[in-house]
Queue: 4 jobs
Job 1
Amino acid sequence: MVKFIAECGLNHNGNLDLTYELIRQAKWSGADIVKFQLGWRGKEGELNHIDKTRLGKMIDFANYMEIEPMFSIFDLPSYELIKTQRINRIKIASRTVIDNPKLVEKIISDKYETIISLGMWNKDELPFELGEKINYLWCKSKYPLMPEDMGGFPKKFDAEKYSGYSDHTIGIEVCLIAISRGAQIIEKHFTLDKSDNTIRDHALSATPDEFNQLVKTGREIYKLISLNI
């Protein structure tokens, strides 16, 4: 079964009420996981400042909506903060793989299920040894990612080192291609308003209707390829 991650990131624009609505709409859209970021533009007074109280409210609301909350961890203080909460898995951005590999090693050693994007990773070998609790996502760190920049996109996810795909393209079509090639995790940016220019991610994100279409079509494709037809 494919897992769908609604990557809200900083698309809450620093507004807690908007954060709640993003979580609610992610659940309505069929996402399995709703994801935010800790430590990126997260200092006091910055757009993504999330303290322990706010973090607890976000997680409580996600649990109320019966959708799994997940966070990308960018630094050690954010990791110490997330450890105060009940979280099943942690996301690692490719920037953290490069800038803070020791933090990633610590998270892995603490036995969290870890999903790692490789958008900035340009080596053939994987940064950390594969294990049953590590999943790597194929990704390219361009915003938006245009078709001419898709070189290296896996032909078969189930035959390579990637469990899934983290998407920065406009639209849902590339996500569906990834599923048809065996991707079992799809991460797609999620917004309520593509025209919002607070940060760049809104424009390349899926709206609730688009994300819902992605989930429904993607799950049907996955069921069909599971039959080896």
Job 2
Amino acid sequence: MAHEGLWEQLDGLDGAETARRADCEYLDDPPRYVLTLLSTEYVVNPSDRNIFAVGADSTDQPADFLQQLCLLAYLINARDLPLAGKLVGENALPGGQFFFRGVHGLPTRRLQEAFADCPQALLEISGRFGAKDCEFGDASIRLDMLPRVPLTIVVWRRCEEFEARASILFDKSTAEQLPLDALLAGVNLAVKALTGTVDEDS
């Protein structure tokens, strides 16, 4: 089974206390967590070790590998802390300068390719995910990846003097909520959702 070690860790935790830390809901009979990842509601069932997304039409969609990783790691690690209110790049997170390299680099190129010629499209698409507009770059949004893990995505338009650029910024408290591998998984899911929506609209 995928993520068996994470399920075992979750089994050892108190459900109500875990939900309080993670700012989500815990229900009994059967015991389960209900929490939101990228504006989609998921149900995490420790008893039979499955996770599914609750569809708008009441159909249940099994969570994929990365979604499971994000949700389980978050439930295990989340802390009841306020946001620091300070944005930092990935290298400023503890261990980030060593982790976010090579194949573990942030997917900023995909954002550049999708939005550099029309940054406004980022703002238009982000509304589908409950994101809020920010005032950085040519377009920027704050997207709640998980209840205590916001992402700030910034895009600069391509012009004669400068190449297109994109940045993904984190609240300084993010490392308190998620290990870096789960954070990267969540970022990849977020960028895939945003850029995939561009493809659908084009």
Job 3
Amino acid sequence: MKEIGIDHNSHISLSGKIHSELRKLILNGELKAGERLPSEPDLAHELGVSRNSLREAIGLLQKEGLLVKKHGIGTFVTDRYPIIRGGIERLSSIGSFIESQGHSARSEIIRFDQCVCEEKICGFLDLEVGSLVHVLETTKYASEIPVAVCIDFIPKSIVKEIDPERIYNSVFEGLGRHYNIDIRYAECDLIPISCDEVLSMKLNVDAGTSLLLLEQIHYDVLDRKVLYSKSYFPSGKFTFKLIRRR
């Protein structure tokens, strides 16, 4: 771990800065689940900070569930702690969902293309085989940690031309604001899968990591199938909750 310097012009306390740096190391996987931290004196020396400030930061991380202290053994990174937790009953953009959890949200375009729709996806969208679709693939970040990869398929018969810069932050809002497509509901499947090599690089997780695949067919106010999406979430960074009522 690198030394944490003191910025005397910063309004953030030293303990707050230590907390932020350690939290980032845990969430991006540099400090692995189950890993034991060095002793407080050794870690304080390694980071170049006081033991009191370090102890305060570790206390905050314990309250957040990122660290657990085992008496007589040491302090360990917890096995599981999702960055994003919440329900999926309400249809909203992933960016809005991330921001509702108190994180900054950012999207990054991986690719944008027009191509012939795969037969399976044509079936989902009620398209003739050979129809053209716009394909937008993005990575979603929560406080600069990659938490999802999304692939969206939009029929060219619904929107002839698309500027990806208008929709990549939020396909929902972008289609509504710029292309008059008002998405009202979606049919969803939540499928557990294993991360392959390609997704592991995009999500900064190990190949074989458990992922949740959220497959959705989105309908507009006219009950047209206007969007098919596949969103991949590392289960250790993103968890969903469903509230069921009688």
Job 4
Amino acid sequence: MLVAAAPASSDEWNYNAIAYAWLSGLSGTMGLEGTEGQPVDATFSQLAENLDFALAGHFEAVNPDIVFLTDIMYVNLGSTKQGEVANETVDVDFDMTQWIIELGGGYRVHEDFTLLLAGRYYILDTGATSTSEAGGNSGEVSQSWGDIFIGGRYNKLLKEKWIVSLRGDIGAGGSDFAWFGEAALGYRFTELISAIVAYRILDVDFEGDDGESYFKYDMTQSGIGLGLGFSF
């Protein structure tokens, strides 16, 4: 949730911490070597039915010239399906965990506008286990990669209460190409506490081969973000 709850107005450092939930869906293609990839088109409500655990948080330190920021998001999805194979009942357990970690900084070229340079690191683990009377079988794919991105953020405090924020960046590295966009609106209840609502979209096109396994992840993650911010 990349929006400063309170802009720096002196030479001193201000700090903003935000706990948030990203109510996002997923669409795109995910696949292994020898396949064309499996299409994915899941809404937030469909993903929420299989959600085991999630957490997300953002922290930044701001002065009139410089911004340092970090953002961490974790999600764990799991589901169990049952089917028939060769007249036998087979239970399939699927599990996916994803980390997205961002670390970087920026230079405030204007009170309301910041140029950003940072890194974003992805960790994705997927696994499936099938069980039947004949026995069991399991497989797992783990991939991690990082990108460097550049971008900008516009923040504006309106009438001491409302905050408007626009953020965008593009990057590459491990990914062939990735981009992120966010439009956010916040309300300051006090100098300490703010509430934020945003629309966020992250598009990642990754294709990796470590010599042992091939993995394709060409996905768009988008949806509403809700956050609670603390400034000190």
